[in-house]
């Protein structure tokens, strides 16, 4: 476990902002309708995510650790064109990835609704495109933290760990934003800090195994989704649920349907067949007409807002910091 390391990482100091260089900028016009909130929303890990902000002027901010170093990206849509500014060593990389992140490689026209509810939900959201960030760890680590716990617990863990061990995001960021820790820093987080963040030994150990082979995992960004799944799942503790949640974001994979989820099978079953107790097998059966686009179909179903009435208690929260 992490506590065996003698040296403790130095947490980021609140309010410490490095000297900023001038922003780099880029403009990009998408080939069709674009809804930035729908496209970038999956990157947000809870309302307090220190790596993501949406501001009242319609801008979306994202702090990332790129192959060139930390970077901050601000994107806003004006008259159908995406206006982007970026700061930090990773600014050029982020701007180079801008079209892919906003769904340039996505093919929304390939989707054909097969159910009335799906057709109606799809029609109401013409700006939905699937992003491709080109970054694996920034989606993998929070997905590991979300394994087998409530979203509130996972979001809290991500927020606490990134704020304490990340570094201040470059640029004139709104409020306080942080870039997630580099792999070496994740490896040096003491066991008691994982515990304080509410992360059990199993999830913490999975994160540690992942960051030890961070370079190999980041290589998966250049692979086809199926090969990327295999590369990620070669790490003990990373299964189909976690790899799907990652590849959906890093690759924009339209068919990377999430299996092993507590709620999704019931939602899909209820929306498409009026069934309240669907399992993964039944969900995949119902989504079969959308093969090749099953992740997009599931997102559109979720956006429809049609969910089964709750009949069982929510997953109980377990505060391991008090155990």
Automatic annotation (TrEMBL):
Location of the region described as Disordered in the Swiss-Prot/TrEMBL record: 1-33
SUPFAM superfamilies found in the cross-reference section: DNA-glycosylase (SSF48150)
Highest classification ranks of the organism: Bacteria, Bacillati, Actinomycetota, Actinomycetes, Kitasatosporales
Keywords attached to this entry: DNA damage, DNA repair
Enzyme Commission no: 3.2.2.21
UniProt keyword DNA damage present: yes
PANTHER family (UniProt xref): DNA GLYCOSYLASE, DNA-3-METHYLADENINE GLYCOSYLASE
Domain of life: Bacteria
Keyword Iron-sulfur: no
Species name: Streptomyces cavernicola
InterPro entries: Alkylbase_DNA_Glycosylase/TA, DNA_glycosylase, HhH-GPD_domain
Reactions performed catalytically: Hydrolysis of alkylated DNA, releasing 3-methyladenine, 3-methylguanine, 7-methylguanine and 7-methyladenine
Protein name, UniProt field: DNA-3-methyladenine glycosylase II
